[in-house]
Every structure is written in structure tokens, then in C-alpha cells.
Amino acid sequence: MSDSPDAGPPLREVPRTSLVDFARSFARNLLWRDMRSSLEHLHRRYGVAVMNRAAPMTMVNLFGPDANRLVLLDRQGIFSARKPWMTIMGRIFPNGLLLRDGADHRHQRKIMHEAFKRPALRSYADRMNPMIEAGIADWEGERRAFPAYKELTLDIAASIFVGVDLGPETRRMKSAFEDMVAASMSILRLPIPGLEFRRGLDGRKFLVRTFGELLAKKRADEGLDMFSRLSGAQDEAGEKLADADVIDHMIFLMMAAHDTTTSTLTSMTYELARHPEWQERVREEALGLDKPQLGFDDVEGRTQLGWVLKETLRRYPPLPVIPRVAEADVEFAGMRIPAGAMVVVAPIHTHYMPEWFAAPERFDPERFAPGRAEDERHTHAWVPFGGGPHHCLGLRFAEMQVKAVMHQLLRRYRFRVEPGYRMPVQQAPISKPRDGLPVRFERIDRPALSGR
Ligand code: HEM
């Protein structure tokens, strides 16, 4: 593929969807929130690129790992992440890292990196583990996995990110935060009292005020929470993040961390419940460690749990699609994508391409085992964390948290879903079960645990 739109034979225009296909994909996405089938239809019918012209926006869907590489790596510095994400969540989560481009983004990311290095992750793991133990202690019986994980990850975030312990103030913070997440997904975006969107704006005001009041203390102490670390982080010239930036990053980080991890834990629980042989394999691995809690240095050694995690993220990428805006004309597969177009790549589609993943409908964690390593056939075939300059900053944190929760859960409970149950997945805007995923947790006898 040429890097320059001017080189080689003249470029073709990207084919446009018919009105019927446009209406069909709009309905599927918006009403049924089922992106995958509409994307598969578009790919089959139009090839690796297709354009929807929906005023006032031109939207181009690109398919496959080469498209992911072009857009996510963005070697030419053409694709803005800020523009589409501002449209989607800019009023509720402005100035988050993902809502920045170019030099500003690079500068902020470099400073923020401090809060994601190994020593920081180690201290987060130490703080997280007792919270997980307490959080799952009474899970025996029937419960809906999604809200249960949501509660758990939000409690963990309040402690690890903000450094506050559970209490009335934390409850207000959690509900403000939930209002913001709901508002960022609402269709009716008017600041009218009583509407979801207004509650989100009010939630934001509350969090900005609360974090603003905490900031001076965070700057002064050398706390181990993410807020303190971000407040103290600096670049090589000794420059720190401005007050408003620390607050906006904190709010965005809580959002980026929370829904994605909840979604992953839920999907993983579903797959392990449906595949008891895999549940036993990863339980054996967990019991083999002979530690009730997973320390930071044990995370990498959870090999089979790692495959299960990767397979879960392949099948249910929490972010099914990733948007950008092309700031100049750009070529893809001999076609010209016009400047100004919203360009969308789709992990949820690539992850099911049989060219890259054998029998993609099968839950088969061993596809990630050495020897098969299907994710290594192309640098951008398995992309649940995106790639390039905006590659997920929290991916190690996410891996640690999911594995730490699963480690304890597997040692304590067997879990199952009703025979014949199929999780009704809502893929957009974030992958989650429509019914919350009802699961039965059965306590494992203590003697079996201590016998190890
Ligand atoms: C399984 C869990 C997670 C998944 C699947 C996930 C996925 C993603 C994806 C796909 C992107 C890129 C979006 C784009 O390019 O438009 C992203 C960016 C980001 N994620 Fe995650 N994420 C997860 C967990 C986390 C956690 C736990 C944190 C923080 C502790 C986090 C912080 C971020 C940040 C700050 C960015 C923006 C990076 C930048 O713009 O430079 N994520 N994530």
C-alpha cells in the first residue's frame, strides 16, 4: 500500500451503501445494538471499505487487520481521536487522554505513564486484593454477574484511583460517576432538569468540585493511589500536570477503567460457566499457586487464565469499534478516503474473520497457546486494546485486576449458568449482557482448598 495518495494509479472512490443497507445497519446498531452482523453484511457486500453518507457526517467503515494498522498506528499523523470522541463524550468527559491529539496528547501521556509503571501497579495489586476478598465473600447463591462486578470494580476504583475508603462521600461519588457514564451514552443530550443527560452534567460538576478540594492534599503527600501519583508526576523538565488536567484525567481514567473491566469479567464468567472443562483447568492453575491472593509478580505466570482472557477479549471486545476523523485525504486498498470523514475500524469484526482466527465462533483459548498463537499472524488482528499512540494505557492494570478477581473467585466458587442459557449480548456502546448474566455460585469446600 502506498503511503502517498498521489502515488501510483488513480485512486477509486470508496463504494457507498445503498439506502436499504444504510437503514438496516442504522437500525441494527441503534435499536438492537448488534454491530457485528451489520458489519459482516457490509464487508461481504462491499469489501474492505464502505461509505455511509449520513448528513452532516461522512462515515467510512474499514475492515480487517490492515485497516486497523493504518488507522490505529497512524504513521502519517492523519487521524484525530479527539474529534470523534469529543462528539461522543466530550461534554461529560472533556480533556481525557483519548480526547487529545498530537503533541499535547504525547506530552500528557508521557507524564501519566508514571502512574502505570511496575512499582505503581504492584502497590495497586496490594491494595486491591483484600477488597476483592471482602467484595466476593457473600457471593454464594444466585446473582447477576454484571451489576456485582460493577459494584466491585467501582469500590476498587474509589480506593485505588482516588484513595478514599468506602463511606457516604464515596457513595455520592459513585452515583455521580454512574450518572456521567449513563449520560455519555444518552441519545437525548439536553441539559433539562430530570433528563439523564442533565444528571450526568451535575455528576461531573460534583466530581470536579470534590477532586478539586482533594487536589492540594494529593499534591502535598506521596500517597500510593493513582490520584497522588498523577498529581506528583512530572516530565524530564520537572513540569507537572496542571490542576484542571489532573482532574479531567482522573475522571476519564475512572470511566475508561471501570466499564471495560466490568464487561470483561462478565464475559469471562459466562464463557467459564458454559465451559466447565476450562473452568476446572484455570481453577487447577489457581489452586496450584497456593496463594489465596494473586500478587503482582504472579500475574504473568497465569498462563491458561491469560489465554482465557485473550479469548474473552477476542469474542467480546468491550469497545466493539474505534472511531477516528481523517484530517486529510488518505489511501486504503487503492481507494481514497476523503478528508473530514469519520473512519471506523472494528475489533468486533476483525476478531471473527476466519482468515485470521480458526473457527471463530468457537470458544478456544488454546488458539493463543505457543505454536498456534493466532493473534501473532498479523500485528493488528487481535486489537481489543486498540494500538498505536492511543494504545490502552491501562492494559496491564486491566490484566492484573481481571486475573486477581478471577484467581480468588475460582478458588472460592464453582459457577454455572442454566443449561441451554445463551447470554443476550448488547455490543454497543460497550459489550454487556442485557439481562445482567444470572449466575449460580457454589462455594468450594474449605478442605479441598487447604488440601492444596
Ligand atoms: C479490559 C479492559 C480494557 C479494554 C478492553 C480497554 C480498551 C481500550 C481501547 C480500545 C482504547 C483505545 C481507544 C481508541 O484508540 O480510540 C483504550 C484507551 C485507553 N484506556 Fe483502556 N481498556 C481497558 C481498561 C483500561 C483501564 C483499566 C484503564 C486505566 C486504569 C484504561 C485507560 C485507558 C486510557 C487512559 C486510554 C487512552 C489512551 C490514549 O489516548 O493515549 N483502560 N482502552
What's a quick, concise take on this entry?
This protein is an alpha+beta fold and 452 residues long.
Structure, described:
The protein is of the alpha+beta class and about 450 residues long. Helices cover about 50% and strands about 10% of the residues. The chain is built from 16 helices and 13 strands. The strands form 4 sheets. The protein has a 5-stranded mixed sheet, sandwiched between helices. Helix 8 crosses helix 9. It is globular, with a radius of gyration of 22 Å. It starts with 11 loop residues before the first strand and ends with a helix. The C terminus is likely disordered. It binds protoporphyrin IX containing FE. The site of protoporphyrin IX containing FE has 22 residues, from helix 11 and helix 15.
- The total count of strands amounts to 13
Q: Structural class of the helices, strands and pairings?
A: alpha+beta
Cα shape: globular
- Figure out the total of helices: 16
Uncertain spans, ≥5 residues at pLDDT below 50? 447-452
Order of neighbouring strands in the sheet with most strands: 2-3-9-6-4
SSE string, helix = H, strand = E?
EHHEEHEHHHEHHHHHHHEEEEHHEEEEH
Strand content: 5-15%
Task: Give helix % range.
Answer: 40-55%
Question: What are its keywords?
Answer:
49% helix; disordered C terminus; alpha+beta; 452 residues; single chain; 5-stranded mixed sheet
Topology, pairings included?
Elements: E1 12-13, H1 19-30, H2 35-46, E2 49-54, E3 57-62, H3 65-73, E4 79-80, H4 82-89, H5 102-112, H6 118-136, E5 141-144, H7 145-162, H8 168-184, H9 196-220, H10 226-232, H11 243-274, H12 276-288, H13 303-315, E6 322-326, E7 330-332, E8 335-337, E9 342-345, H14 347-350, H15 395-412, E10 413-416, E11 425-426, E12 432-433, E13 438-443, H16 446-450
Parallel strand pairs: 1-8, 3-9
Antiparallel strand pairs: 2-3, 4-6, 5-13, 6-9, 7-8, 10-13, 11-12
